[in-house]
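Good morning C.,

I know you're traveling, so I'll keep this short. The sequence:
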Amino acid sequence: MSKSSADNGLGAPVLQNLCMTRQLIPDPELRLAVLTGARGAQRASGKESWVPYGSRALLLLFAAAAVMLPLCSEKTLSEMLSRKEEEWRVLQARHSQMQEAALQGAQKQLEEAQGKLRRLQEDFLYNLRVLEERDLELQHYDAALAQARGQEEARQAEVSALKVQVARLEQELAREARRAQELQQQQQRRAQEHRQELERVHSDKNGEISHQREQYENLKCRLERKLEELDGELALQRQELLLEFESEMQKREHEFRLQADGMSSVVLSHELKVKLLSKELGALKEAGAQAAECLQRAETANAELEKQLQGRAWELRDLEALKDARIKDLEDKLHSVQLTRKKEEEIFKRKHEELDRLARERDAMLVAVKGTHAEQLRALEARVLELQAHGEALEVQLRRAEWTQADAAREKDAVIDRLREDAAALKASWDAQVTQMSKEAIAKDLQVQTLREEEVKLKAQLARRQQDVARYKQELSLAVGGERNLGREQVQLNLDWQRRCDSIEREQIQRSEALTQGLLEARDQVTAKLQETERALREQEAVLRAVTLERDQAVEALQAQGLLPVQEFPRQHRGEISSAFPSSEIQRLQDQNTSLRNAVAQMRREMEALSGETLPSAQSGENACTHLPEAEAAGDTAPPRYVLALAAEVQNLKHKLSALEGELASSPGPLETSSGDAKLHPSTLEGELASSPGPPEKSSGDAKLHPSALEGELASLLGPPDLHPSAPTFTETGEGPWVAVSQTVCPNEVKMTPTGSLPNAGATVGVQIQEPCPCSLPLTPYPSQLRVVWCTCSRPAPFASCVVHTASCFARSLC
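The tokens, ready to paste straight into the viewer:
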């Protein structure tokens, strides 16, 4: 301890000397050789003091410094020597103080060791006295042990007798246990049998329930498949009926159009033959009757289809009622099976509770018997344990006394050996610490140098890492900014797309609303035009009757003057015209067409309501040039067909008037007029009918209407048609009257623009196609001396009639 304290006291100066040595001698090997040489010189002198070692070491250091540093000045060396002498004196004084302190510490330790030795001697004497007392106690215990052994032998005899009784009781207990185990096994077997039977019944019932459930699922699947098949068949039948109805309607419309064309051609071919007029009118009546019959058949077919649809609906209701009844029966069966199962479970629970009660009673009896036997055994075992514990306590006390005596002797020898070892260890540690200090100083120098190098490397690495961290922070900030920009762009893009979708949706809604409004306005306009046309036709009918009456009066006047032979034709013709004027026939056909159109619209609405489809109104409004059915195209985008039929009838009347004019022109004699009766010459009548461009003249209460005025009035009523944006344009050529006519359904409207001045009445007008029509319109020649406003054409005849207009020339294809 004194050496360690001295070493600690001299640590700072020694370290200072070592540091100075490291400064004077940079080479570590040379420095180690100098230090070891100084230590060897100290050991050779036989002095183990620090002061000579320090002086010699300093001298050697100074010698080495003188060798290594020959360039140093004498002044520097003298200063170093004086400083080192002062340090040496300080070290010597400090070392002497430390030696005195170490000596005092060693004396204190010696006194403490002597006190411990005296205490150990006293303890040893006390232990000897205690051992003598324990020897006396052991003799007393030996006598007591012999007495206890005699008592123990007697007790062993009693214990053997008790063991025999215990063995007999254990045999009886084993028999009772076997009997209880057999009863328990029987109960377990019965419970297992009952459980197996219950599981079997449960599995059977589960199988039946699963079978019933499978049957129910299969029935449900079959019914669903059947319902789906019926729905599919019903949808197919609806589609087939709709297609058949539309095809039948188109076919009938085509037949009706063909019949109307045939009737018009027959009327035009037999106008000059008065005798065949009645036959043609009869044919027209028969055709009307056939059309009425066709309409009636269509209504009956529609009624039959409605009856079939109602029957299918009844069949579906019957199937649903049958399915519900079957489901209810299965639910009742399942309920009854569940009730029976609950009853069986209650019976089994009651039986099981009775068995549990019997088992618990027997277990209670066995537990009581076992308790009595266990109490007896515990009492006997307690007595045996008490005797064994008393004997073991005596043996333990004896062994404890022997152990304490041996421990005291071993402790005394161990203390002596430990003191000797401590003295030797102190001497060895003193030398080891000196060598260790020198080695540690050198190792510390090397470690400091390596640590400095590592510090430089770590600083460089730290600088690189800081640069990397700064670069990473910059990249991270750039990435965060880019991510924020991308987020803002994404949000802005989503908002732009949302606004664009909203605007497109609003535009689509506005277009659909505009289309709906346009369709409604077109329907209102067509309805207004239809009413206006009907009114104009009624007026024209009255005018036509007046013209016919005037013609008849003129013919009668001519016959009265003898200018014409007496014939029955005018009178009969007048009666036939008055009786069979086509206005009633037109009205009847118009009513039939309206009723048929209403029936078609009603059936279409019903079929769409059943199938859940909506009318493609937007597509029909936007795609005007698509091939739609003729009924829809004629009803939505063009005037009704009965208007065309009326125009055809007007043309027929015009041809009749031209034929009558020809007949009047062929009859000789002048025409005289008077205030009472109208007397007209045929040439005068012909010229008046052919050249009068003005409106009808009224004289003496009778109306006189020129054919051109009739055509102009009809044209003014119908008006020029609105042109389609994609319609081709025509110009006049003067080479001949031509007009473009489409042989298919086409909603395009064609405008004819005159290139020069408007032609006069009776001039030749011709047109030429400038750009092709999307319908591939053919060219068909017109009669001369006609200015075409618009024409109505019906298949297969290319033209049915032409109406003259005086202001401008238009053409419209309605085929």
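Safe travels,
E.
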